[in-house]
Amino acid sequence: MSSTTEEAVVPGCQFASDNAVGACPEALRAFVDANVGSQASYGNDRYTTVVADRMRELFAADCDVYFVFNGTAANSLAVSTCCQPYHSVICADVAHLETDECGGPEFFSGGAKLLLASSSHGKLDVSSVEELVTRRSDIHYPKPHVLSITQSTEMGTVYSLAELAELGATAKRLGLRVHMDGARFANAVAALDVPPGEIVRAAKVDVLCFGGAKIGLPIGEAVLFFDRKLAADFAYRCKQAGQLASKMRFLTAPWLGLLAESAWLKHARHGNAMAARLAEGLKKIPGVEILHSTDANAVFASLPDGVHRGLAARGWHYYTFIGPGSARFMCSWATTAAEVEALLRDARAAAG
Ligand SMILES: Cc1ncc(COP(=O)(O)O)c(C=O)c1O
Question: Is the CB of 18 under 6 A from ligand 1?
């Protein structure tokens, strides 16, 4: 790779991303266990069938389930199934769809346009969604057709069921399909402490991208179609986009480890708890301000320059490019309380 926005990570010294940590033991064991004998390829193996069934049980829904390599592909391909090229997709101005997918949703949908709704702490402003949809109805305006909701949000907040119900009802009243970017869906389930199906039903989600990598898979995301008609040609989209794994069992078997005994939820709860602990500690440091409610596994804070310098000198890694003037500290299944305390010690020392 010639360049990347991800900084090199010093082991044990990172709060940059939940992508930077390794695979959780449950997923890794299931990956190794799947390396026995031969299996049918391209998703016709028994692991893939079983995982899809487990997903249907988990969501208490008769959904269609697919597996792709990453979140950009999941979002882009899921959105493209909901759209014609002349349609528009409403998403938050801070949505990953808009800021970090290199035009993937527009490309894979053959030209659908993203319309950016204003947001507060990462959450869509319902009146802004409504305004974008009703602003015009002439043929020169890309016809609004999809609402994309990120749960948990890019700012580490989590929509309540009531907020999701309002968004879902608005979307359906306005004739929109609902896509959910659930790259950190597990953290939202842990935060709300409700069955996952309640979240998708509250928001009237047609298609959910359920993140696996950030919660402990070595690689991969699931795409769940609650409106199964939308999934009709999805396999072709995956194949054409280079997202159909030939040895699919290695993409799907790790989900078995993650789903067994609710390991995914245990890891999500842990990541959320580490973030809460970090936020509590940071806000006691003079000059530090927590910028968004720490609902899930991310802490956003504004830090004095001296604290940034001190943390950098001690080798800590975190993002400073998401939201103006803010530092993002991301916790994960692998974050330890000792790491949180070490970071806080260094931040306190740097604050003097
Ligand atoms: C909100 C959100 N959606 C989707 C993704 C998935 O992106 P990727 O293509 O890197 O897996 C990410 C990754 O950071 C994300 O934060």
Answer: no
